[in-house]
Design goal:
Layout (H helix, E strand, L loop, with lengths): L10 E5 L4 H12 L3 E8 L12 H15 L2 E6 L1 H17 L6 H20 L4 E3 L4 E8 L2 E8 L16 H5 L1 E2 L7 H10 L21 H6 L7 E5 L5 E5 L31 E7 L4 E6 L7 E12 L10 E5 L7 E9 L2 E11 L6 E6 L2 E11 L1
Parallel strand pairs: 1-2, 1-4, 2-3, 4-7, 8-11
Antiparallel strand pairs: 5-6, 6-17, 8-9, 10-11, 12-15, 12-17, 13-14, 13-16, 14-15, 16-17
Helix pairs in contact: 1-2, 1-6, 3-4
Amino acid sequence: MSSEKDPAGMKVVVGMSGGVDSSVAALLLRRQGYDVRGLFMKNWEDDDDDEYCSTRQDLVDVASVCDVIGIDLEVVNFSREYKERVFADFLREYQAGRTPNPDVLCNSEIKFRCFLDHAVQMGAERIATGHYARVREWVADGRREHQLLKAEDGTKDQSYFLYRLNQEQLARTLFPLGDLYKREVRRIAEAAGLHVAAKKDSTGICFVGERPFREFLMRYLPVVPGEIRGLDDNRLLGEHQGLMYHTIGQRKGLHIGGIRGGQDAAGEHEAWYVAAKDVAANVVYVVQGHDHPALLRDRMVATELNWIAARDPHTHWVYTAKPRYRTPDVPCEIDRIAGGRAEIVFGQPQWALTPGQSVVVYESTVCLGGGVIELAG
């Protein structure tokens, strides 16, 4: 956590979701002497029912935690802002044949913009969340800046989803869990008598919930069937029900498993994988074999760049990058930055680089920023 003045009396508004992480974040800040207020954000109203959406139960859990901790709670509705700034972009990206990451946009536009603005109106000096990440003040080239760092718990680190934050947002943000491991967080919650101590973590896209993803998309985007063809020979192999349902590297749901093609070392027919999508022709192209060359790329172009230090990183320096969240950091160089685009070269070929997803660049534990994958080369 960055160095702070005496926390006694400093007003902090904590974004609380009803989970154990944000609950413990609020608890720790309260113990440290901050003047803590809880804020529950309602970001989705469409089909807000108990079958797929846990908003009602989450609010009950937040209220219970705030009562135990002894802090006030406010509920705010950001559904309109969420639909305009996050969900509309989500639909546009899928319609364009890409695979977006709405959690990244939600953080930059809702949790650290709408939430931050609202907290300031409440008189807060800082906001806090239950993200696993860290912030520190740092002097670089004679000027003071705020750096976003990976969390101590590498298995839970969420800096990937925060790479679009800027200096102003980081300067006002506290991440109380940055130095803790998840198991410690649950122990703290249990010892404090918080009933959410063993609550299951939420997963997936927040507004989709537990409902089938295809079913959800069909409600908002038209179904446009098209062809599935082999990338190597352009052979017609089947039909898809919409480009939006398929992403690069996808194996399941193609329904072409019986088509003969390449064989693996054991003589078995290898599985098919989505390797490319032609939006204009509405064609999904597939290849056989997990390690097919079409699925492996050692360079890519990123757009919609955000560098946290508000300046471009060095080109031709060795950094590391994550081209998707659940992958180990891989060595890389930034070959060129120009016109809002960055060309990134990886030290080893990466599997199934996916347009619309984010690539995030690090120098050791410092998150430098990143961008959206436009294409692989």
